[in-house]
Amino acid sequence: MHKLLLTPAEAAAELRVSRAKLYQLMKAGLIDSVLIDRSRRIPRAALVTYVDRLRGRDGDEKAA
User: Fold this and answer.
1) Domain map of the chain by residue range?
2) Which residues does the UniProt record annotate as the domain Helix-turn-helix (predicted)?
């Protein structure tokens, strides 16, 4: 079972980027995140949406 929310370090590892780069992407509004108390978490779906945008397709579309 996959985690629904990832820590910044886990999300960065999934994308194969540094934590600093992940924070840049979040600050630029390219990856959504949530705040739980004082802990930042990234929904797994936000990573999929970001990668879909990089690939030039809407996250709701199915690949042909």
Assistant:
1) 5-54
2) 5-53
Residue 52 tokens, joined: 């879909």
- Residue 33 to residues 48, 61, 62: CA-CA distances in angstroms? 13, 22, 24
pTM of the model: 0.81
From CA 32, how far away is CA 52, in angstroms rounded? 14
Count Cβ atoms within 10 A of the Cβ of residue 16 and give its class: 0-12 exposed, 13-18 middle, 19 or more buried.
exposed
CA distances from 40 to 11, 16, 52 (A): 11, 19, 22
Residue 8: CB atoms within 10 A of its CB come to 18
